[in-house]
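Record type: ASSEMBLY
Status: queued
Input:
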Amino acid sequence: MHREDFPFLKTGLIYFDNGATSLKPKVVLDSMQEYYEKYCANIHRGDYGISYRASEIYEETREVCKNFIGASSKEEIIFTSGATQSLNQIIFGFFKKYLKKGDEVLITKAEHASLLLPFLILEKEIGIHLVYVPLSKDYTLHYESVLQAVTAKTKVVAISGISNVVGDRRPLHEIGMLCKEKGLIFLVDGAQSVPHEKTNVVEDHIDFLAFSGHKMLGPTGIGVLYGRKELLEKMEPLQYGGDMNQSFSSSGEVSIKSVPFRFEAGTPPIAEVIGLKSAIQYLMKIGMENIQSHEANLKKYLVEQLKKYPQIEVYNANVNGGNVIFNIRDVFSQDAAIYLDHFGICTRAGTHCAKALKEELPVQNTVRISFYFYNTKEEVDKLLQALSKSDTLYDVIL
Amino acid sequence: MDQEFKRELILENYQHPFHRGLKGEEDGYLVKNTNNESCIDNLDISLKIEKGRIIDATFDGEACAISTSATSILLRKLVGLSIEEAKELVENYEKMIEEEDYDQEKMGELLAYQDIYLQPNRKTCALLPANAVSEIMKQLKKQ
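Status: finished
Output:
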């Protein structure tokens, strides 16, 4: 779908590493170029027209993000450098004060480093207890397992909306309802889900959400932290500086701005915020439901075809999502990815930043195909063609 | 060394590597982990040194065909060498990979990697075992 909008696709490369980052449509690139060429000014200051224009578009982006994820107000949208910064800000700016020794955080071993690692550090720092909700036989997370893991000490459920390796779409609505009923805080790492499915933080009772612009057609260096207003009021900034303070004096009196501005110290990535706005508007035009079903169809097709290849082992065949993880039998995943690169097919090999998941999967490293809506059945056929000749792999890569 | 022979050598050492199965400190070996920060190769390499000479070498871990085979070939060559000879060999090998002047005579089967610079992203794979061996040598110097 919409391949003509992506200048990158003219290279002829087949890009199957959308879990790592996505391609950018021309409208996104143009909007950023326009900012630099026509109204390149800092925001929230300056008594001149172009600064006013830049500020306006910057703040409009908050509104666009709010509508995109179904938040209640645009004050609940904070711009960060990406999902990693969002999660660190939430975990060290909010949970570090909110949680006490012995409190339990429900999490899984399939989580990305950017969610699991800050919590592991917090576990060491303040003595909270990370409880790993068991994954099912197909490495996915089921609602019932979360329900069974809740104890009187549970305070938080922290999971990704879609896991970045196995690619399962988590039952966010059911888990959100559970959190609401039990008074738990629900933190969702949306880095892989927000770009690929419809998100609604209010309907799903999500208290905190983090996502990155670059995985959803936007530029690198921009992300979003969503938090319920009441919780953001209790969160502390991790960075102090210009544009986040109201006033200060040498005697140590410091007064900070209101939410969300107190969390955006220094000159923000203005061009990137503008790019993110174009990206989200573009995605909304296509429709998240269409994106999701296109990817699911591609996955279904690839998995079905791979059944004819006895040398290929797929680890998440029946998982509902847009990721396929596999290995060519007896071939190290990196060698497989290098082989596919010889055919102009970009894939990712390794643990995909979810290093604790290797404790669950039968293999440490896999090749990951992660689709986006611009991928096609023809591209999948080219992948299949390359895989059909995999007995020549070492002749190709050595 | 022609391309076909190089490929066979790499493949043979990847599929049937020399002394795979790590012997550790409890057996008197010096052990070093080596991993490629930009990818997923991860190997442990161990050397047994007696009277200034490497008398055995083992390794284990998960790595690509280039890393694994280079480890196999390098370790096989190291066994029997004095510390000084081993250092020289590793340095010479590193120079070859980095496209500097090196002594071709001393490389033997390691010549299989002489063209690896043509695929710059594979250089770190070929250098993986050399890094670990160099680290062990440094450790020795300190003792």
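Annotation: The domain at 287-397 of chain A is CATH 3.90.1150.10 (Aspartate Aminotransferase, domain 1).
Annotation: The longest helix of chain A spans residues 49-69.
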